[in-house]
Fold these 2 entries.
Entry 1:
Amino acid sequence: MMGILALAMLPLTHATELSIPYERYELDNGLEVILSEDHDLPIVQVNIWYHVGSKDEVEGKSGFAHLFEHMMFQGSEHMNGEYFEPLQEIGASINGTTSYDRTNYYEGVPAEYLPMALWMEADRMGWLLPVLDQAKLDNQIDVVRNERRQRVDNQPYGKASMTRMETLFPAGHPYHITTIGKHEDLEAATVDDVHAFFKKWYVPNNATLVISGDFDAQTAKDLVQEYYGDIPAGEEPEQLKPEPVVLAESIELRQVEEGVPQQRVWASWHSPHLYHEDDAAMDILAQILSGGKGTRMDKPIVHEQQIARSVGAWQFSQELAGIFTLSATAAAASDTDAVLAAMDAILADVIANGVTQEEVDIAITNYEARFISGLSTVAAKANQLNSYNHYTGEPDYLQEDLNRYLDVTPEEVQAAAKRWLTAERVVLHIWPPDPDAEGADAEEGAQ
Amino acid sequence: MIISALTPALTLMLGCAAKPEVATEPPVDPRWEMPGPLPRRALNLTDPVRATLSNGVDVVLVEDHELPTVSVRVVFDVGRYADPEGMEGLAAATMDMLNEGAGDYDALELSDALRALASSVGTSGGWDASTISAGSLTRNLEPTLDVMADVLLRPTFPDAEWERIHKQYLQDLESGRANPNSVASRVSRRVMFGETYRGRHTSEEAWGAVTVDAMKGWYEDHIVPGNAMIFASGDVTMDELTGLLEARLGEWTAEGADPEPSLATNQPAETTIYLHDRPGSAQSVVNVQRFGGSPLDEDYTDLLVGNMAFGGMFAARLNLNLREDKGYTYGARSGMSSATLAPIVWSAGASVRTDVTAESLSEILKELDESISTRPLSEEEVAYMKSSMLNSYASRFETAGYQLSGAENIWRLGLPEDWQESYIPRVEAVTTEGANAAFAKTAAGHPLAVVIVGDAAVVREPLAALGFPIVDVDVDGNPIQ
């Protein structure tokens, strides 16, 4: 159920019109506010983006943006307790997430509790530090290190994305270390670091607040002014600009990891950043290569030759840079070298001979369906408004975003593939230990 | 529904979080006062509508025209419980194979046809139910239902596709055994359900025994109108939908069997640790469990509230202790397995740092003991959880899933017809005594099956010191001699 997606859909791809109506304004302290009414259900989403992510961490402080996000749930001066407690009491769904580019916090609450949700969000923007102490920090360092163990260290292939990012991006690049960070850096975080990070990044003029759902705009404006109006602006933090990286040479890493079930391989290139003019063409290329059983890579590799359990292709584009990746899990009777060779041959054919209009049309239709079904909740729409605002400056960028895909041509896909995927790349193979290796070593040792 | 006024939540979770010191300064600044609610806004819901096709299959639709999409699920109330012994996974394989060739399509053509429509047709064979589901843009609903009808009525079970999928299943077995969470769930199922259907795992041998003929037989016996019900939502009216379905499924009148699952269970007789060694693990998966809590029990809603206070959410005792106080884990929760034909399992657990595995188990058991001795669930905690459950009600209706799964559970599990409508009054009626009694009856103060997947070389000794018997188990939960 949803109410704010204005939609006039005709049975031709290029006749779609998608829009999320909104109103945007700014407080005197620079806090950007976006209101989007949707009266379908008596619920409200409060979604705030701070324009800071792990890309903004300094050397030796990896993982800090995310650790800081956890500190935002440890109470503030006027509500010095667990942030979840009063909100879960009123049935809220609450969380925060940190990526390379931004940190977001959100509460979905019954409509009548909008004042409380805003009061709590504002309190931690304005009054976090007076009640922040070493004990809270120590506890959350433990929690975040447990999060890393759970998501990364204790999962088969869990460290692969760290290895790939560290190899693709040189030391010092904002994307060199993944958002979760290193254990030793997390352990070394201090209360002073929290203070400095807060003062630099968590200022109203570096945040955008979206309120979406069943509320009355004037009431919301009054509440926002009342709770946020007194928070002083800070210095305007400097935002990084896209930094293309060129690899000096291709790198192929081979790792043996205990406990992984199968051979897996990733091949990655530097690719266009988010909303770069080639970004959509690279997304379409990924769909054409591996968007279904019958697509270019899946059909011969997984279905016909059956040398892989699965293959994948995706364009991961962020604010400063993008990465295009091919990946595969080898079949038991094959190995990742054979699978990579097969994927490379398919890619070479695309670069040499292009893709068909039909392939592009089908990929576009699937993007269109994805755009529509991705907007089925107020939470998703609130976050989408903030995301478009952050990356493009236009909260209602929905139709223009879709247009990026509708306009892609086969020639553009081929040209983008040629431009980005003939450059140097990083390949990572992860193999299980060879069960015969130990015996072989022992024999050698005996000679 | 009226929700009782907000209790000051600051002082609620005794002994867990850092204590607030709100009262030390006289509150002169209005900012010290948490704002109260605005006037309540109305919750207007669209009730699901029902119809019956000419072949007797019931259809439930939640109509919603905001997005130009439609979803249709055909559910069969039969699943892996009908797998013959020695062919574990047959239902799942059969359902997967429906999508590998149907009508005039071979596997790739089927996938290509759907991709050209930006539609999906998915099939799955679960423990208690099997499903064929279709999703599409409204404008492509008709051709999507054509494909769905082929998959449902005219599967071809090509030998070559089974050969391919069979190899993939063998690889998937390896993947499951490498993942600590899926190992913990395999071991738990074996320990709790033994030789009944949920305790019998897929294996190399069982996949070797499954044949195309066995799948055809399973399909003919079970994928029949008498076992089916249809759940739909989205941009379509009931008249349109039944018209489209009649045209495609009206002639479908095959008859088959509706077997009953075997439901015997072993309640743990004494608390026992089942330890699966996963050398080098950075964390241990810890899971304690016993049977209990059927939605058909009179005190089920009491148990929902009682469990919620113990470990059902972030701000519950278990997580506030293990995560926010001790820092042992990223998150700890407890809860009942979702409503099923098989007896429901109550469990509590977390992934914890290897070197505090025994301490974590100890804390879980201590919380359970205290909940029936020194620290029963308080009036405030019970009021808090009831408030939480009542206030989150409206958000359940953002998508049709809640209403449709309610209708499905009433049909498949025999829940009372008013199961969803009665939710609010049932929660409102829960008392502190009721919540404590139901939680004590189900969870606290009883022997538990404890499953631990972690590095035995590090965790064994501290676990042994807790005094419970330790049984070493393999990746499938069978004792290692």
Entry 2:
Amino acid sequence: MNPIFPTTLLLVEDSPGDVRLTQEAFRDANQAIRLHVAWDGAEAMAFLNRLGANINAPRPDLILLDLNLPKMDGREVLAQIKEDDSLRTIPTVILTTSKAEADIDKSYRLRANCYLNKPVELEAFEALVKSINDFWLTRVKLPQQRPVG
Amino acid sequence: MSEQRIKTLLLVEDNPGDVRLTQEAFRNANKSVDLHVASDGVEAIAFLKHEGKYANAPRPDLILLDLNLPKMGGHQVLAFIKNDHGLKMIPTVVLSCSDAEADIVKSYQLQANCYLTKPGLLDAFQTLVESMSDFWLSRAALPPERLTT
């Protein structure tokens, strides 16, 4: 990633506590991140499709998606992102407390780019956020804004 | 993941030098992995589909895929994996020398789980392999070997 440009993240998470912790952990890990929050699945899709008040929403470089969400479930959000020709290239990382093998398998089948277990302990959570920053936002080549073709 | 089972990797790479460097990088990183090598795209598919001499090949936990391959290109191999019901959930990491945006976008369109560029310098390559294996083999939850459903 080019450090000159801020990296835009969309966090889809309904728990205010988890949102706060994620914001704080990213602030510690990387100052150049702009973290947007969608509190449920419907809001996430409205943000990504720039509907209503989201008309000027930026295209995220990476999406962090919880599975259990009100209104529209995380699995449905994932399916919609990955069925959309324009949105599907945005790496979408599942970040959930579920360790169920069925959830892991289903998420990868629905083309999640990666599945991460959200640890309960604060320090482990901070370490996980740091590793997301170090790997996905530092090592990985993310697609630039719009798909070229 | 906390499980200590040794992970099986399939490296699809035609350059013997890069194969050797990758093997050494895993060894230097103290990562015990069961690393299998396919030296072109056709061999990779044969391995994954248990064809011919690969009748007893294990299912990899993670695939590392070069893009420039003889016989069948990396993008074609990727498309095959991600359209195959039994293989699509295996995380597939593109590991390529190409920095071209078209290659990056196309790989994500074809549902690569992530895209990494192979650095030319040896130290940087070692660091990349360490970071990749730390993330994918220690942090990420990988799909279960077999799901009964």
